[in-house]
Amino acid sequence: MKIWLRKYEKAIQGEQALSYANAEGPLVYWKNQLFFSFLLYCLPFCFIAAIPGVYMALVSGYINIAVVDVACVFVVAVVTFANRLPLRLRKLSIVVVCYFLALFLVDKLGYFGPGVFYLFVITILAALIFRIKYAYWSIAANTLLLLAYALNIQFHFFESALNHIYTPGGWIAFSANLTFLSIVLVMMIHHIFRSLEATLLNKEMLQERYKSIFDRSPLPMWLFDTQTLAFLDVNEAAVRHYGYTKEEFLLMTIKAIRPAAASHALEEVVEKNRMSGVFYTGKAQHITKSGQTIFVNIESNLLLLDGKQARLVQATDITELLNNEVEALNANLKIKESELNLRAIFNSTNDGFVLLNALFCIKQFNSKAINYVKLGATPKQFEIGKSIFDFVEPSKLPYFKELIQKVYAGEAIEYDRMYKDVSKGPVWIRFTITPVYEGDTIQGACICGRDITARKLYVDTIEHQNKTLREISWMQSHLVRAPLARIMGLTSMLNNPVNDEEKADILNYLNISSQELDHIIKRITRQSDIIAQAPVPGADAKKCDDFYMETTPDP
């Protein structure tokens, strides 16, 4: 039955199927729909009135009434199925047929016929299917027609059944009721349609506004059927972001943009949200047309659209954000690892370090700082946040402040200082104070203390050895030279003939010179041995003093 009804509706409307898009406005759209509904029901149900009317007309001898009734039904049938005719012409045709039938029946049957009733119906029909002004024109036309009948009753211009039933006054009184009811009902219909038009316009404006928001949203949005999961609508941002055309979207389900492994979980979530109807938010993995995997933040709400439960979804791409978070996490891990490595190096180095901030307060220090950054006679344990000046010996505080000011002005300071240690003896510390930059601005200073005692001893040892070597060289060039020269001279004298007494003197002098040379050579050898056995860096002061005494040449 429904199939035949749809075919019947299609035969009536033909290519004139209506929508808001091709109508002049929402009110005109609904008026046109009312006219199609009138055609849909008028033809089959008009036989309820036509068959008895024709039968009674034939029985009563009113052949002309029967012919007019059949003709009017035929015209209504033609107009009903003449779907190629313009819609306005079809409306006018129905109104003309109704007017013709009404006037004919009023003329032939008078008060007892349905003619007056059809005049009333024409006004109501005009108010329903035309602009309201045509309904008021219909009232005016009906009033003039009824007045014309009153004049005909009075002056008998033509033969009519009314002439034998009514007086002019009686007919006007009767007609006034028709006019009154027509005006009241048309005004009520006008009020209803005006309110309906305002409601429809407001609804249309809201729909346009939300449609505009939907279409122009910079974020991908779509509507999908919660039963079939099919896309119902998508905005331009979704088309740009996912790479599918709008037509392609409308042929797909939301499973198409999800990984295959997530299909079952997706169906469960949609079904759960469809039953609860609550606002949903969550993160999901989507796949674009190019195959790229992206991560999105989903926000959706349940809507009732054309009798279907649909979900309005907004998807925010957070792929870059997640990548940045991963990069930031990896960077933080590397920074922590670097900090740990730096802390290990900072604490394992043999030097003492103290870092200061821009206000001369201690920012950080290592475990060696108390031993090698000695700023006072009695070392103190450093504390983070305290001023470095609290740890400086009062007598040296002005000098230290002067150095720090130079460092904060961009200069690097380096100096050595000796401290006396009861257990170790003299201890030498080399201080290096350098500025700490952040960008191009000095934001602090670094004080480094290094024990250079062994280095000092080594340098002093080398200096004393060099002094001894210079003395040995002097002895070789001066002290050895004198006896050697005498020996060489005496030896040359033995080559000449001499007497025994002279020979004995030469030999005696040779012996003295040889003993002197031997003494000098032994002295050089002894001093060379002392150099070879010189104390290494870190030797105590007593050994150093012994070495200095041994290597000092005799006057």
The backbone outline, from C-alpha atoms, is rod-shaped
Distance between the termini: 145 Å
**pLDDT average, as an integer?**
82
Low-confidence stretches: 536-555
Q: What is the strand content?
A: 5-15%
**Radius of gyration over all CA atoms, rounded:** 61 Å
Estimated structural class:
alpha+beta
The overall number of domains is 4
Largest sheet entry: 5 strands, antiparallel
Strand numbers in spatial order across the main sheet: 2-1-5-4-3
**Could you estimate the helical fraction of the residues in percent?**
55-70%
Helix-strand sequence: HHHHHHHEEHHHEEEHEEHHEEEHHHH
> What's the number of extended β-strand segments?
10
- Total DSSP helices: 17
Domain PAS: 206-250
Coiled coil: 312-339
Pfam families: MASE11, PAS_8, PAS_9
Enzyme class: transferase
Give the key terms:
555 residues, alpha+beta, Beta-Lactamase, 10 strands, transmembrane, membrane, transmembrane helix, histidine kinase
Description:
- Residues about 535-555 have low confidence and may be disordered.
- The termini are far apart.
- The protein folds into four domains: about 1-200, no CATH class; about 215-315, 2-Layer Sandwich (Beta-Lactamase); about 350-450, Beta-Lactamase; about 455-550.
- The protein is built from 17 helices and ten strands.
- By secondary structure, it is an alpha+beta fold.
- Helix 5 (about 115-130) packs antiparallel against helix 6 and helix 15 (about 480-495) runs antiparallel to helix 16.
- It has helices at about 1-15, 25-60, 65-80, 85-110, 115-130, 130-155, 170-215, 235-240, 245-250, 265-275, 320-350, 370, 395-410, 455-475, 480-495, 500-530, 540-550; strands spanning about 220-225, 230-235, 280-285, 295-305, 310-315, 350-355, 360-365, 415-420, 425-440, 440-450.
- A hairpin with a 5-residue loop joins strand 6 (about 350-355) and strand 7 (about 360-365).
- The strands form two sheets. The protein has a five-stranded antiparallel beta sheet, sandwiched between helices.
